[in-house]
Batch of 3 targets.
Target 1
Amino acid sequence: MISKLYPRDQIKSYLIIDVVSIVFLFYIVLSSDSAPSLSGSLILLTAFLASFYIGLWFRDRYLLAAVLAGIATLTLIGMYIGPRILLFGFIFADMLGKSKSKWHIAIGIAAIALMFTIVPLKENDGLASLWSSILLPIMIIQMIFPIIVYIIRKTKNLQGRLDIANQQLEKYVQQEERQRIARDLHDTLGQTLTMIKLKSELAAKWVDKDPRQAKEELKDILATSRIALRQVRELVSEMKFISLASELEHSGKLLHTAGIELEIAEQGKPPLLSSVEETMIALSVREAMTNIVKHSQAKRCSVTLATVGHIYCVNITDDGVGLVEGKLGNGIQSMKERMQALHGTVMVSNSPHGGTTISLKLPLHHHRKGNPAS
């Protein structure tokens, strides 16, 4: 109920102060011998309350009008009772600071100054009473008060926006982190689990024909599953550096297990890559090899590493069934995201002689010769 009579957002900070101030104002006016008649006093106090109430709910030109009306009312009361009534100008000075317009605040401050100029004229020594009494610092404080309130509210609004932005950023980072973990799990564990699957199929074929060979395959499965466990630990902590050479070696074993012959050709001296760049390319190669084993039905695969101008190129070609039209899996998207993070590109196309060609291109213009990035 009270929130309909008084703004909810101000109840905690202002309600008690406003109630106490209004009670004191009513007491001073109604108990003063120099106040106008009872009806006149009630009219002035009603005008004060109306101005105060309107100022509570608005932040636009209605707030300015309410402040000006309230200051005018206090000026009239002050001319009857004396300058002490000007202390209640803090009520409207505070309201004025909540205005959205700097021009409105400037007009209100001018009205406060005018009020402190008019009321002392009623005294015997005129404006001298203003300059020689405590009224001067009170006037200065009331004139500065709206500016202080405006700055505080502006700061709170900016802090609120910053908090919202930080919350949105945190959600975005969490989402990106989930996607990264999902991508890394897919890229890293996918290949290892594919090898375990292939080894298991081989072991099942050999178990009756050649138990000794089946036993060897089971040993490989055990070793590969240990690798998978280590990869999970690494992914849970943080992505480690992955050497492109070691990844190609690992890919050779995977393809050999799947009955695919791998040929690697390196043209020229390899460039000096940062650990992040080499890791991203290695993971992209890993994903490409996993896709070849799973989907290509290929017998041969070739990897060409070359530096063309300021571009480092990794071309992966197989002689399999080629691309299925309209079907690009998560693996291709994962490679694209990794290379885009390095300002590189990924091109996937059908090979002229059958199969698929994946071309990874990384710009090297930011590298200095003989000075590897870290």
Note: Residues 367-374 have pLDDT under 50 and may be disordered.
Target 2
Amino acid sequence: MGRPSRHDADHLLDVAVALAAAGGPGAVTAVAVAREAGAPSGSVYHRFPGRSALLAALWLRTVERFQEGFLAALETMPATEAAPTAARHVVAWSRAHPRECGVLLYGAADFGERHWPAEAQERLERANGRVAGALRALAGRLGRDDVERIVIATVDLPYAVVRRHLVSGRAIPESAESTVADCAVALLEAS
């Protein structure tokens, strides 16, 4: 049995998250990840053949981890509870994972999406398609044809609250969860 790797892909991506949170997407290079991880650069290149593959893996792992709970709220909650629960998830996840949230506050394009390997671009398209489908399905379950209002209630509004706190360097208060949930309900009941 071989020795377990000291520098597995998840550890290297954890380091990349920290670099991105501190210095933005430009700070994430194979050399910087290797240096911060205390790993030989070959360990990084063995797992990520180039910077675009590293950035793609960083973005995809982060967004998929976030989307797991977001999708669970949209797809498993009763229709009237789904939007406020999804909005609450955005804030709760962001508070629990401020570095990863910092990554998502950029965007895939900031992480060089157009240069990603085709497989990574397809994976992102599938992930985003699943979210779009879940939002449309929720609109249908609520008997609404305005998906945009649901996107504002579950994505835009909670991210605005999260962004304001993270950009200012302040922790997201626990009360923000109930605030965005209440706003989601009010927005969807207003029409």
Note: The chain has one domain: 9-189.
Target 3
Amino acid sequence: MKTNKFKIIALSIVGIAMFTSCNNDDESVAPVTPATTDFSGTYVQKDQMARPAINTVFIASGAPKDAFNTTIPSTMGASYQSVFESRLLALNSGYTTNALGQTAAQFTGLLATDVLGVKKTGTTTFFDGTNVLTGRALADDVIDVELLLIFGGPTGTSNAGLTSDNVGANDKTFSASFPYLASAW
């Protein structure tokens, strides 16, 4: 959510630049023909990031990241669990289990399949202490949850300086109606 503000601002700037013209030759402008959408061709997946920061932290940039981003989810776990586990233990050499009771192999097996589960009934949350990866609510502090599970140890209280990004809330409140996000400005 924190990087969405920057994405929205960047998209707004690009949109303004696209629709702003400094051309004073309005007489010579040809009538605009409506564009049609063309879905023909070959589409290639370029990025996967169901869980923010997981791909960024656990997969090295370059060729390994490109390969991960184009791997189908059903084969991600088998292909990348050991890569994730090596990286986890490099980040936290004292890792035993996390606040969910998961060993390094269990936790990285879950993370290596970079999909966001959705629970159709009940609580939708990234992690609220009871429910785990049942979706993602806008207000979920995903980065803090990930840091807690990587560095917090079995009780979630180890390495206190590494278990939070210290951003306490979104910069703007969410609205009660769709699209739920505050305007960019």
Note: Helices lie at 2-19, 54-58, 63-69, 73-91, 104-112, 142-151.
